[in-house]
Inverse folding.
């Protein structure tokens, strides 16, 4: 056996060693933080939060590619009652934006792009036909074909591209016009014009120059647009300017995150520090608790940034609520430390350690369970919170006793708070007790019966409503393709994909003629399948031979046809050309050992046509109808149910741990949490708030944190200082999650609200079920 | 997704019949004065078109009817029969058997409306409209005659026409079109006469 002195020396050595080791880790974190904030890589895209579609990864790839394509583009419609007014308004808007060339660059229609696209397609002109042309070439007689060639040659007016001999029947302009049908905007006086909803509109395309977003929460692009809008309205009263683009969403998200991080993060930090001051009336606890929180947050951020490619803004907002949870360990230490002589602090820490570690374990387990769902966003939040808690815990354990050398007298407020436990009623297994429980059970049952569920992607949307309204209006006016409902075409090689698209398009043409949809945008319109190219080339060669004969007869001169490329237009050539610019996102190419493309639909304003579109894919090999909105909803539902199961498993696991530690008293720690969670759900039922995936996640977290209160009261029965710590922890947790309920992101709000209600209820319920300890007094709690 | 760089150049696809006019205000005013503002005009035309790939100019003949502000009917008689109807809203090409070779609608193609507007402005002597699109040079010849050379101002039109030359007196007597692709047409008008107003608009 060691003699006491030797033992003491050893423990001092190990204490120093621990404190130093943690200091090294903290220095590493600080160095990483410096780098992180210099090159901040934050993610604002809502879709990045969503899980991969495990059944069909190509769908996720398609979604990502479509989202990336929109990139920095900004589309703007300026509208007025008539065309001259629209031109004036658009000119005013353009002038206003010309003052912001550092932010926005106008995308002028450049003739060069058209020329190079035209030149690219020219060698294959003979195999680019519209369905109508194909029909005409098949059924038109030699007379009609010859007549048309003569008109094309002789008449002074008519559409043409290039020389007559390049296209004796004038087929090409029609093909281009069909491509032009992919948008509603038409050239007019050098502008892109469209008439809709009683107004003439001019379409302006801009490109944002800023690469990322301002962490400061500034919104320069949004403000520049507001100026342009004001300028347009000043020149033409009643003029409208509708603008939309990823840069606007990114700015709004960044501004919102920046705002919420300050309200939630700084708000709860201020509240926690104020609480510490009121309770302990000393600067040391404030400094140390702040230190533990700072290190906790920094470590959380660093580890998240190291594990994930990019940190999502919502993670930071959620992470801001960590402040309200991670301070618990510091509170427990100082609540116990109060009124104790400084030399007792090591012993004190050892006495607190089992409870603190158990509390940490349950909380970290609960957070990590969040990460079981394959939502990249949730995984980040889980890692962020778990690491943050662990770092705060280690700071308290390794550093607090070493740094906390002075006296810490008991304060009046702390005393009062601690004593309040004595007056708190206690549940007893008598008639009144059981009746009370029965009443509670009825209240809960009635509330639960009114609970509805909702699984909707809108939970994740936090964009300002005016932005969503603008998106709708612009999409409606321009007839933009829907990015969430499309066909995914799959095949063994590129040729098969294009052939399958062609078959699908025949069905869609019929639906289009019936007015079900306005149109579609398919890669195979720009890059026909090789088999189609061969048939079409043969068709035009035959018809143009007849055309040339007719012209020879009429003019007395032997007319010759231009040469065309022998080999077909291949996908690789097309992808490398400027022609692919607008369609590239729809060509997924090779994914694994299959090839994929996306066919987009335009003019889908009515959800009732969706079943018809889904039916159009039926029976077609390799064609699937994708409704991302519906898919995401069903995914969220699946995970909500899964989380429900996980919650039950979580309760069982926590119960086992508690049984191992507290034996027959274990129920006292778990029951308040179970009751509080059920009551929260019941209240949601009464309030008409729907149950979502994010409530289920909050319940999981409530299990992890709510049980802590029970644990502390059981670990230190009748100890007023434990109650004091629980009270402080409850108030601060409540504050930070309550502030989370202010978030504009519905998911975070639902989460915050569940945590807020649950925490309050569990906190109030826990002392009811504390063990009987009539002899306990505050003064003897930590006496040796 | 929102960008269609090639598309805004569709006006290139459309060619107007003929055109004319002004920068020098005096010249413009004087030519307007000399032109007869008759609402309806008919006559014959002879067109010599030089087309890439053909050694000889392609000759065609026919007649036309201009109803100012409403439309133009352009009928080719030789070497084949066909008609072209141009109104403010549509451009319709028809073969002798009545089958439509093509039809363009200005509601779908505002560029067409611009071309038609140009044409009507020209024939109606609406110099203000024409001067927006062309740089105009020229000279007055004798008491009645005049000659103008029009160069497109905007890029879209320049991709169709290199230059347009007009010669006339009370009426436009000759139009020379030099297309951007190197083809050119020389259209001469004969037998020009004012005609009664057609019974109903098309």
């Amino acid at each position: 056996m060691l003699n006491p002195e030797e033992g003491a020396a050893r423990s001092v050595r190990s204490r120093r060693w621990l404190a130093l080791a943690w200091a090294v880790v903290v220095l590493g974190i600080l160095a990483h933080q410096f780098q992180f904030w210099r090159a901040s890589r934050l993610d604002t895209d809502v879709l990045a939060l969503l899980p991969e579609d495990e059944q069909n990864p190509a769908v996720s790839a398609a979604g990502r590619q479509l989202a990336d394509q929109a990139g920095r583009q900004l589309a703007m419609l300026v509208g007025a009652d008539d065309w001259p007014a629209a031109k004036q308004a658009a000119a005013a808007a353009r002038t206003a934006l010309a003052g912001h060339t550092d932010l926005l660059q106008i995308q002028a229609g450049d003739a060069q792009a058209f020329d190079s696209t035209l030149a690219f397609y020219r060698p294959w002109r003979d195999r680019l036909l519209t369905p109508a042309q194909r029909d005409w070439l098949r059924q038109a007689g030699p007379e009609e074909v010859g007549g048309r060639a003569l008109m094309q040659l002789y008449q002074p007016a008519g559409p043409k591209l290039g020389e007559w001999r390049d296209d004796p029947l004038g087929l090409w302009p029609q093909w281009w016009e069909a491509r032009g049908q992919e948008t509603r905007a038409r050239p007019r006086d050098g502008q892109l014009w469209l008439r809709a909803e009683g107004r003439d509109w001019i379409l302006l395309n801009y490109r944002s120059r800023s690469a990322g977003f301002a962490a400061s929460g500034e919104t320069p692009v949004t403000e520049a647009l507001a100026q342009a809008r004001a300028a347009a309205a000043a020149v033409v009263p009643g003029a409208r300017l509708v603008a939309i683009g990823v840069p606007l969403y990114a700015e709004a998200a960044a501004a919102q995150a920046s705002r919420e991080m300050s309200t939630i993060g700084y708000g709860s930090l201020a509240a926690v520090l104020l609480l510490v001051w009121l309770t302990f009336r000393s600067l040391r606890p404030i400094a140390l608790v702040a230190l533990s929180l700072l290190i906790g947050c920094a470590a959380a951020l660093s580890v998240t940034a190291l594990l994930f490619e990019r940190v999502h803004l919502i993670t930071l907002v959620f992470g801001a609520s960590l402040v309200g949870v991670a301070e618990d360990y510091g509170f427990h230490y100082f609540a116990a430390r109060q009124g104790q002589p400084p030399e007792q602090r090591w012993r004190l820490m050892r006495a607190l350690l089992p409870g603190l570690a158990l509390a940490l374990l349950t909380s970290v387990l609960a957070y990590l369970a969040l990460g079981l769902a394959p939502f990249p966003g949730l995984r980040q939040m889980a890692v962020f919170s778990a690491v943050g808690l662990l770092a705060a815990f280690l700071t308290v354990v390794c550093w607090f006793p070493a740094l906390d050398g002075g006296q810490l007298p008991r304060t009046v407020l702390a005393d009062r708070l601690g004593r309040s436990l004595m007056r708190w009623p206690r549940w007893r297994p008598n008639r009144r007790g059981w009746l009370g429980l029965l009443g509670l059970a009825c209240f809960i049952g009635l509330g639960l019966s009114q609970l509805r569920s909702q699984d909707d992607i809108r939970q994740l949307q936090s964009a300002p409503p005016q932005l969503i309204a603008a998106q709708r209006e612009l999409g409606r006016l321009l007839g933009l393709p829907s990015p969430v409902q499309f066909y995914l075409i799959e095949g063994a090689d590129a040729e098969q994909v294009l052939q399958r698209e062609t078959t699908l398009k025949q069905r869609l043409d019929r639906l289009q003629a019936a007015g079900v949809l306005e149109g579609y945008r398919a890669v195979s319109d720009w890059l026909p399948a090789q088999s189609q190219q061969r048939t079409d080339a043969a068709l035009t060669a035959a018809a143009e031979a007849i055309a040339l004969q007719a012209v020879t007869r009429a003019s007395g001169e032997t007319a010759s046809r231009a040469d065309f490329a022998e080999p077909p237009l291949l996908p690789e050539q097309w992808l490398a050309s400027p022609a692919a610019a607008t369609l590239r996102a729809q060509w997924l190419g090779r994914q694994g050992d299959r090839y994929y493309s996306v066919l987009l639909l335009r003019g889908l304003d009515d959800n009732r046509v969706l079943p018809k579109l889904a039916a159009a894919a039926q029976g077609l090999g390799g064609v699937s109808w994708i409704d991302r909105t519906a898919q995401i909803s069903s995914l969220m539902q699946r995970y909500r149910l899964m989380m429900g199961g996980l919650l039950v498993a979580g309760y069982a696991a926590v119960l086992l741990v508690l049984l191992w530690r507290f034996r027959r008293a274990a129920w006292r720690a778990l029951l308040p949490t179970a009751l509080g969670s059920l009551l929260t759900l019941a209240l949601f039922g009464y309030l008409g708030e729907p149950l979502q995936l994010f409530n289920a996640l909050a319940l999981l977290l409530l299990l992890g944190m709510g049980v802590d209160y029970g644990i502390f009261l059981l670990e230190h029965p009748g100890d007023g200082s434990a109650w004091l710590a629980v009270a402080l922890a409850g108030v601060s947790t409540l504050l930070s999650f309550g502030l989370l309920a202010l978030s504009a992101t519905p998911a975070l709000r639902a989460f915050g609200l569940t945590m807020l209600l649950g925490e309050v209820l569990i906190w109030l319920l826990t002392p009811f079920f504390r063990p009987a300890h009539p002899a306990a007094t505050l003064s003897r709690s930590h006496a040796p | 997704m929102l960008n269609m760089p090639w598309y805004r150049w569709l006006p290139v696809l459309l060619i107007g019949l003929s055109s004319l006019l002004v920068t020098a205000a005096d010249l413009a005013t004087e030519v307007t004065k000399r032109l007869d503002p008759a609402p309806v005009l008919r006559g014959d035309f002879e067109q010599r078109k030089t087309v890439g790939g053909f050694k000889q100019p392609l000759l065609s003949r026919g007649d036309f009817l201009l109803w100012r502000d409403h439309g133009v009917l352009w009928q080719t008689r030789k070497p084949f029969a066909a008609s072209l109807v141009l109104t403010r809203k549509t451009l319709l090409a028809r073969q002798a058997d009545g089958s439509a070779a093509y039809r363009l609608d200005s509601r779908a193609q505002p560029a067409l409306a611009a071309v038609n507007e140009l044409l009507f402005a020209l024939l109606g002597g609406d110099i203000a409209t024409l001067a927006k699109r062309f740089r105009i040079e020229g000279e007055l010849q004798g008491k009645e005659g005049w000659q103008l050379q029009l160069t497109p101002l905007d890029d879209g039109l320049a991709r169709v026409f290199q230059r347009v030359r007009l010669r006339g007196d009370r009426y436009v007597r000759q139009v020379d079109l030099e297309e951007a692709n190197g083809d050119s047409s020389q259209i001469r008008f004969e037998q020009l006469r004012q005609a009664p107003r057609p019974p109903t608009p098309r």
